[in-house]
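Q: Entry one of two.
A:
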Amino acid sequence: MTDPVSEKILQIDARLLKPDEMRSPDELFRELMVRVRRYHPSGDLSGIEKAYQVASEAHKDQHRKSGEPYIIHPLCVALILADLELDKETIEAGLLHDVVEDTPITQEQLTEMFGQDVSQLVDGVSKLNKINYKADKVEMQAENLRKMFLAMAKDIRVIVIKLADRLHNMRTLQYLRPEKQAEIAKETMDIYAPLAARLGISKIKIELDDLSLKFLHPDVYYDLVSKVSLKKSERQAFVDSIVAEVKEHLADAGLSCEIEGRAKHFFSIYKKMVNQDKTIDQIYDMFAVRVIVATIPECYAALGVIHEMYKPIPGRFKDYIAMPKENMYQSLHTTVIGPGGQPFEIQIRTVAMHKTAEYGIAAHWRYKESGGSKGGEGGEEAKMAWLRQILEWQKDMSDNREFMSLVKSDLDLFAENVYCFSPAGDVKALPNGSTTIDFAYAIHSAVGNRMIGARVNGKLVPIEYVLRNGDRVEILTSQNAKGPSLDWLAIVKSTQARNKINQWFRHERKEDNITKGKDMLLSYAKEKGIVLTDYLKSDYMDAVMGKYGFRDWDSVLAAVGHGGLKEGQVVNKLIDTERRDKQRHITDQDILEAAQKPKENPPASSTKTRSGIVVHGLEDVAVRFSKCCSPIPGDEIVGFITRGRGISIHRTDCINVINMSDEDRARLIEAEWQAPGETKGPAAYYAELNIYAHNRKGLIIDVSRIFTERDIDIGSLTSRTSKQGTATIEISFQVTSREMLGRLVEKLRNVESVIAVERKTG
């Protein structure tokens, strides 16, 4: 690539990927020592030197996917930690974080060489890396998150090391397979970047966001980079003039300050374009000016000077000093109209606020000029309140799916908060769109459970009243209240309120839900002609609990009873587990019959060459994909021994499999996808979706456009509309992977008036 735009892209890539990976280990170590000495109050850094020597020797025969020596990775992790100005124990642990996991060095040896503090940090990071890979991806992610939060409770530095580890892995993600890149980038965007934001570490959060965007949506990312780069010099000149002008006026007002202009990072621009449905040409505030002063009164004095200079835009002023964000971020934000009508944002903060904004929770371990080791400045209890809330959720929740939903929702910091007051003057920060019910549960779960009404600014309001900034809220309660209503779940906005309402129903009505769940399972089994007691064996029930993330069978029954789990899902998993258990009892005659009968219309794929399927117990048998459920790589599958046509592959949730007779069920055989790289498999797989939507003009066009934009040919499309105005669109096409299908489904769900998108199951 030699054109100017491509050169700009390469420059941006170089900034994001960093040049550290292009240097020798010894060069990186020397740079590490230089960075640490800049802030460390002690001249004794022998522990860091020793950690490097031990790690270098332990990893000497290991290499990364890029081909570089493995020691480059822990060195780069340590450099990231040094940029956060963390203590030397954390730097040592960053250098050693993989030695117990990947080398013969034991935890005991580490303790003996480096002491208990470093050893425990390495142990904490090692435990985070030991993910229990279960059949369900949600289960895996939830267990990993549980480990992370428990590690944070013991020592928050463990998570800071993990974030640095993830950041360097993201910087070198290009060496992995595209599907692995997308998987890791998605997890980073969903979990790690919001976690860094929650802990207030913007230095890491911003780069994780940009790198996730690059690997998840490369076309969007590079288009954004090229367009931003084209007008960079013009914007820089504008920012420089604003900085000079503001500095002059503040100096005239007797305010000493530091001022800098910065461009908004790519992910921030992308989010604004998506959320506001704008093109990049319509985004004007693509940069911000930051003013750093000495004291809080000077922040407000500077704000007054700036509002004298430039006209502020109404509704765009936020006071995060008086009402800090939950991660303790503090600043004044105001958007003003500059020369030529150009809007731009100004942030005003103190030096201490700036350190908190950049380093977040990590600032607690920054060495002070006085020479002290660790210490805080009084805000740690508030900073850790969120973590304590998460740990309480862990104790209360056996359902990993619900836990994941709550954590992801709570990590989402893109929604603005609304700030309201209790009658005593206490401030409550709630997600934008919250109601009086959210406010009640923010006070205490007992207040929410006994709530019968609310007054806002002295007037009675409906409980679904949406709160506004500055509202004074009084919650009316009664000892005779019967508790929350299920309808409240559709009204509340905050994760905290939703969790506490669900918790009340689980505890108060658990016995009722267990009884109801039992009845629903028995009724479903009877309807299908299944004797349920034949399948209620401990191993089979364990398989159900493992798949859906429950810790005991009563929780499964309760979930069925309150509608969180479909009875068909439970019964089918029990039957499928029993079938797999008995698979070895399929007679040799059945297998011989399936393998030797003449094949009519043989399929293009076979077990070992083109299908990408392993059928256990059979060799060189014709394999075809059933059209009733259209399985694609990544789906949980099962084989069916047909009579004369080889093996047909179905999804395990296929209606035809669920409703099979006992005679046909005996012909099911275990099947799985071959590991990536072992076979090429077909170029594309047949898939069918059912799209349900409120009928409107242009619906089919909007749906078709999603496929056209992704260069996906539609095989067939049929639609019908019910008397109630609900449109059902059945559409068939080909995809190359489950990830591709997932992204397509996600996009279709965002089409206006679409109610649901489901894969066809039979």
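Q: Entry two of two.
A:
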Amino acid sequence: MTIVVLIAMVLGVLIGLMFGRTFGLQEKTLTLQSKVGEVMSLVEDEYVDSLDADSLSERLIAVMLAELDPHSSYLSARETERTDEMMRGSFEGVGLVIHHEGDSTYVGQVLPDGPSARSGLLPGDLIVSIDGQRVCGVGLPSDSVVAMLRGPRSTKVELGILRQCTPTGAAEPRTFTIRRNTVPHHTVLHYTMLDDTTGYILLGSFASTSYDEFHDALYTLKQNGMRHLVFDLRGNGGGSLSAAVGIAGELLPHGSLIVYTQGAHSRRRDVRARGNGLFSEGRVTVLVDENSASASEVVSGALQDNDRATIVGRRTFGKGLVQTDFALADGSSVLLTTARYYTPSGRCIQRPYDGGTGQYYREYFNQLLEETYADSATVHIKDTTPYYTVGGRIVYGGGGIIPDRLLPVRKDSSFVYYNQLAGRGLINRVAFGYVRQHAARLVDRYPDAPSFVRGFRVDNALVERLVAAGEAEGIVRNSASLRVQRPLIEAMLKAYIGQSLFGNQGFYDSYLPQDEDLKAVIKNKI
């Protein structure tokens, strides 16, 4: 078994070298390549069974990269295409978010700036067919439906739609013809004024459009009187380094060091703010959590080390490895780690991974558990090596960014019942069931997100419907928990309804008043 694994590793090295030859191979590497080439020829000519060369090569590449570090990876041609879409911040399609339940696919949301915006489609509409092919009740997975909806710009697609469907299916489907176009994928999920002087920006990821989106949101909030920015990077797993640098630069004075990168085959490269940022003097608070990673850590580390912002929340993930995307001839690609990120004070963001990928993620989950139930902030500090901000404050490395102000994970036992409902997806499901029944009436009564947020109220009947849905799945009603967490439950039901009708604005304007971390920032003037 050991020999087989070794051969797989060696073959993977060869394939990586073949496609990555632009690095310039040394004599030692060429010798390795020639030896492995002999083994490849031997396998091809003498192996007992016939081989699927494409499948085998993909598996071997993946094995080899996984042995290097946790974040070097191989992407198939399809995965590469999807990743490129996310990084571009757009894709070509019809501009719908679909909602899949069982073997049925519904219109979950009509994107306001997409091709379907003026089609007359409503959230809750059942998609019966696409271009005459039935997709309802035939067990078609959601990704297959998505593939049928997407397509080249200017092409048309016909949707067979059933509205306010009865259990007997007596209603007749209507046909909607949509011309596909470019659909923007916004990374600034929401921005708003929280009060007369406090602005809020939520960034979901870092893509090629993120800097422009952030700049526009920042400009609008500043025009509205913002003197304190709350920049929310919770759950943001990163993305484009150039977007992170541009965004950090809008909050820093000219010449400030933002990040530097360095690797065994790449010398140190310092990246600095190119000009005085649009908001380089007002107060800044950055919200982070255990799922903030990579580019999010670049931004929060830069602002912390330059004494430009107060970092609030929980220790970040700790991904500080720089991946370079190398395209392969068949449309697939290799994301190869080529350097490390360092914050301006010299901290390496990356958590140790000497024990291999499995141990790497086990330690992450163990860290989450330890920090969740810790009574002291010192448990967050694993490496006591001091680093210094530009103002002389001590900060610590060891992987991830440790916030200036730690916010505890909510451990109240009343959350157990809420988490059971949310974890099963029941809050979203019950909210969408309400949308399916009442979409036309809701859109007529609330023409936009602000009117919905002001006027819509979750009644007791809808809460009881959620409780009943939980009981149907074995979640016993917890009256005491329901009483304590009712404001949050109502807010989340309203938020999911608002999201279906009005997108992110409908969701976040409904939910943010119940966001405990955000409430702590406002209350304590952090």
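A: Comment on entry two: Confidence is low (pLDDT under 50) at residues 1-25, 165-169. The chain has 15 helices and 21 strands.
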